[in-house]
Design a protein that fits this description.
heterodimer, A: 308 residues, mainly beta, 2 domains, 15 strands, rod-shaped, B: 161 residues, mainly alpha, 8 helices, 0% strand
Chain lengths: 308, 161
């Protein structure tokens, strides 16, 4: 009997209808994942861009252009102003080139300071993500940047950078207009100007030694977390840094930014950024002009953003 | 008078051709989930592993609502074929599935979730309800459902059973 003939039987047709309905509803439900989901990118320039080499001094060493031992700050507006066209062939270069100074009062004259800047545009991956739908579905619970470092010098600090490392992360947070809420346990409570503590853990400056909160409800473009001055592997209040050796002078670093938006709804983070830098803090003898290179090359691996 | 069997019996063997839009939509939807929706551990797609690095593309915005379109198209056609009968009967089946998809999308609205959790917290914790509420309500999904149903209706109307 042909299949088409079998369909003439009401019993067969009824079974088919039930089967289609069950399969349809099952697949409809099963395609929604009630557990947290992840977004990640291979860190291509399509989704991640930005990097610049900051020239601190002129080209004729030695210079007396005294610099502190802190790399130039990268403030959120600078992050967001960075465009894909800023990516250069030294986008993956991190570090400094110093010339010893002829000025005894100045320990270092910086020739170049390069820091890598990575911005991931999450907005075009999921149409739903940047829309900022209320409630479940737009909460960033963690972001992990995974990259490898190829050192030009033997590692000299616990983070395996050739010099002291500086890692920072920022998130561009948008506050939705409609009724932002936060979770307190199982309860949703509305957010107003009096409720901001605990909503976002952020560290405006300095090493992360404890929880911090921003002073006001986050506005569009507010910094969500700053890992500046993480000096080595370990766990921090807002983050964790894990370093593993993957070869001679080759190290893998995982920067896990947690609790950026802790239990918050009606916020979204369509853009996320990290910056990595390092600087040579070695004492330099000013009597003899010597160049000190302190550079590493980064190989970004993945950026994983988990949201629920 | 024509019996029910006779009325619902296929009058030709074009069911394969009628089935093809549904099969294409299902395969496309499966492929979309396999490559563009990583870290999915749902009961349906537990075996799906990320095979390609997911990267943002200029057309990535399409991915958000494409599953709604494909799922509606596939199951409107499948249900219409399963129900059989004349064109009106098949279109009603298609319309019924369109309603199911619309209800499922509306159920993902946060207000509905809040209402369910308040009214029946135990029910809200059950896996089917959690799965239903876990999605993200999106107007674009509603449009995609409408387009999928419209295309399915066109396929149903322009082909023999």
């Amino acid at each position: 009997m042909r299949f088409a003939d079998r369909l003439a039987s009401p019993r067969v047709r009824g079974a088919l209808v039930v089967g289609v309905v069950v399969a349809g509803i099952y697949s409809l439900l099963a395609s929604n994942n009630p557990t947290p989901q992840s977004w990640f990118t291979g860190l291509s320039h399509e989704t991640v861009w930005g990097a610049w080499a900051v020239t601190i001094t002129g080209t004729t060493p030695p210079q007396n252009n005294c610099q502190s031992n802190t790399p130039p700050e990268v403030d959120p507006p600078t992050f967001w102003a960075t465009q894909p066209t800023a990516a250069t062939n030294i986008s993956d270069l991190v570090g400094t080139t110093l010339w010893s100074s002829t000025d005894a009062s100045c320990p270092r004259a910086m020739q170049f300071s390069s820091r890598s800047l990575m911005i991931a545009d999450l907005s075009s991956f999921y149409a739903k993500f940047p829309t900022g739908t209320q409630g479940i579905g737009n909460r960033v619970s963690s972001a992990t940047l995974d990259f490898r470092i190829a050192n030009t010098l033997p590692p000299t600090n616990p983070a395996m950078f050739p010099c002291s490392s500086y890692i920072a992360g920022v998130g561009k947070i948008f506050v939705l207009k409609a009724n932002p809420v936060i979770m307190q346990g199982a309860n949703q409570i509305p957010v107003d100007t009096t409720i901001h503590a605990g909503l976002v853990q952020a560290q405006s400056a300095g090493q992360l030694t404890g929880p911090d909160v921003i002073a006001a409800f986050p506005a569009a473009g507010d910094e969500a977390g700053d890992l500046t001055l993480i000096g080595g592997a370990g766990s921090y209040s807002n983050a964790a840094v894990v370093v593993s050796d993957t070869g001679p002078n080759l190290h893998e670093v995982k920067v896990d930014v947690m609790k950026w938006v802790r239990g918050a709804a009606n916020l979204n983070m369509p853009t996320i950024g990290f910056t990595v830098a390092s600087i040579n803090e070695t004492t330099i003898n000013p009597a003899t002009p010597v160049q000190f290179a302190c550079q590493a090359f980064l190989e970004p691996v993945t950026l994983t953003v988990q949201f629920n | 008078m024509e019996s029910l069997s006779a009325r619902t019996a296929p009058r030709d063997t074009h069911w394969r051709r009628s089935l093809s839009p549904a099969v294409v939509a299902l395969v496309a939807g499966y492929a979309l989930y396999a490559v563009a929706r990583p870290a999915i551990h749902s009961p349906l797609l537990f075996h799906v592993a990320t095979v390609l690095p997911v990267r943002s593309r200029p057309w990535s915005w399409l991915l958000g609502s494409a599953p709604s379109f494909l799922h509606t198209l596939a199951f409107c056609v499948l249900l219409a074929l399963a129900v059989g009968g004349d064109r009106r009967r098949r279109l009603i089946a298609c319309l019924a599935w369109f309603g199911v998809e619309i209800v499922a999308e509306l159920a993902q609205h946060p207000a509905v979730g809040l209402w369910v959790r308040t009214l029946a917290p135990r029910t809200a914790e059950s896996l089917p309800v959690r799965s239903l509420l876990a999605g993200t309500f999106d107007l674009a999904d509603l449009v995609a459902v409408g387009l999928g149903a419209a295309l399915a209706a066109w396929c149903i109307s322009n082909r023999q059973r």
